[in-house]
Amino acid sequence: MPALVQAPDVYCVIGGEPERRAAFADIQALRAAGYRVDYPLKELAFGKQFKAAAESGAKLALIYGTDELAKNVVKIRDLGDRTEREIPREHVSATVRDFFSGSA
Length: 104
Fold this sequence. Notes:
This protein is α/β, with parallel strands linked by helices. The chain is 41% helix and 22% strand.
């Protein structure tokens, strides 16, 4: 019998309330596409969220901060090799799909 995987695919690191609202739209779209997405239920410092992301077993972290929201981008961090880049918010779903399909 295959092992049960409970780790999320993606963990969202969220700054504050405005960032949380922006993140929820992307979380909903990713979940609708079949990805397991986790995020903090209450406001936590970025450091604690990154620790939670690493411990969760997620492969990607999506970072929603004040600066990113102002620029209408999301930082995407590969939690395996710790590389990070900014992507336009409208490309979140496609970028995540490409990452998991090996196209990115």
